[in-house]
Amino acid sequence: MQTRALGTSTLQVVPLMLGGNVFGWTVDAPTSFSILDAFVDRGFNFIDTADVYSRWLPGNQGGESETILGQWFKKSGKRDKIVLATKVGMDMGDGKQGLSKKYILEAVEASLKRLQTDHIELYQSHKDDEATPLQETLEAYQQLIQQGKVCLIGASNYKGDRLTQAIELARKHNLPVYQTLQPEYNLYDRQTYEQDLTPVAKKFNLGVIPYFSLASGFLTGKYKTLADTKGKNRGSRVEKYFDERGEKILKALAEVAQDSHAKQASVALAWLLAQPTITAPIASATSTDQLESLFAAVDLKLDATALDKLNQASAY
User: Fold this and answer.
1) How far apart (Å, rounded) are the C-alpha atoms in residues 51 and 114?
2) 225 pLDDT band (50/70/90 cuts)?
3) H helix count then E strand count, the chain
4) Is 216 helix (H, G, I), strand (E, B) or coil?
5) Is 157:127 a contact under the CB 8 Å cutoff?
6) Are 202 and 277 contacting, i.e. CB atoms less than 8 angstroms apart?
7) Which residues pair with 211 in a beta bridge?
8) What is the pLDDT of residues 139-152, one digit of tens each?
9) How do beta strands 83-88 and 207-208 pair?
10) Catalytic residue among 53, 185, 193, 241
C-alpha cells in the first residue's frame, strides 16, 4: 500500500483518511466497529476525529466519536495500526473552548481518556483562537510533545496569514511547527483553499488533509435533485450545492466515472489526490459497502483529459 509523509515528519499514512464524525451520530457503535475493522483490514491506517464530535446531536455532549474509537481500540487491539488524529478548540459547553494553554492541557487528558490511549499521533487546533496568543498555544503543544502525549500538531480552519504567522513564530522560538492543515476543500469548494491556503501549504510543505472531500455526499451522486436532500441527516448541508455550477460538476463527474469504470465518489477523491498539495482527503462512511468507493480512489489515476474536464466544470 502506498504511503505519504505527514508534512516534513517521518510519519507515513495511506493517502485516505477515515472521518470519525459519523461515529455516534449517524452510525452506532457496532456499525462503527465494523467500518473501522474493514478499513484497517484493507491496510488503511489514518483516522480523524475531534473532541466535539458529535455534540450537535440532541442528547449528545461531545466526545461520542472519541469514546467509540476508544472502545474499538480496546476491543480490537488494533491501536498500534492507527495514525490517530483528533482536534481541540471547539465549544464543548460550560466555557470549555479555545486554545489557551490551560484548556489544551485539560482537553487532551479528556480526549486520551475517551480514546483509551496514552498518545495522539496528530493533535490539531480545530479552529483559530484569536483571543489566545499563538505562542501560548504552541507552548502547550510543546509540553504535550515533551510528555509523549502528542507526536505532531496540525491546524484546521485557519486563514493563510494566521497560519503563516504561527509557523514563522514556531520556527523563531524553537516551538513545534504545524505539520498539517485541515481545510474545507472539494471539487465544489475550491476558491478559498486554492487562493488563500495553497501558497502556504506549498511554502511550508504542509500535509493537507481536506474535510468535506465529498461535499457532505453531494459529489457521490447520492442526491440527484434538491428534493432528494429533504429529510436526510446531511440534507441541509447539501442544499447549497444544487446551483448551475453544482449541476455542471455532477455531470462531469458522471461522465468521468463512466469512462473510468468507477464510482463518482472515487473520482471526486481521486481528483483531490491528484492536486499537488493534498496528502490524504478525509471521507466518512456509514456502512462497510460505502468503503469500497473510498478504497478505490487511492488506486484510481485520472488522466489529463479527465482532470481537465473536472477542472473546467468546477471552475469558479
Assistant:
1) 9
2) confident
3) 12, 10
4) helix
5) yes
6) yes
7) 184
8) 999 999 999 999 99
9) unpaired
10) 53
Q: Is the CB of residue 293 less than 8 Å from the CB of residue 265?
A: yes
Query: Which residues have C-beta within 8 Å of that of residue 134, sequence separation ≥ 6?
Result: 162, 165, 166, 169
| 296 secondary structure, DSSP code | H
Catalytic-residue membership of 193: no
* Residue 156 CB contacts under 8 Å (≥ 6 apart), including other chains: 87, 124, 125, 126, 127, 181, 182, 183, 211
Pairing of strands 17-19, 46-48: parallel
Which residue blocks in the chain are alpha helix, DSSP H?
Answer: 29-41, 64-76, 101-115, 134-146, 160-172, 191-192, 198-204, 235-238, 244-260, 264-273, 288-299, 304-313
The closest of 21, 29, 88, 100 to 56, measured between CA atoms, is 21
Chain-centroid distance of CA 230 in Å reads 26
Q: How far apart are CA 286 and CA 305, in angstroms?
A: 32
pTM (predicted TM-score):
0.96
pLDDT for res 193: 98
Position 149: which residue type? K
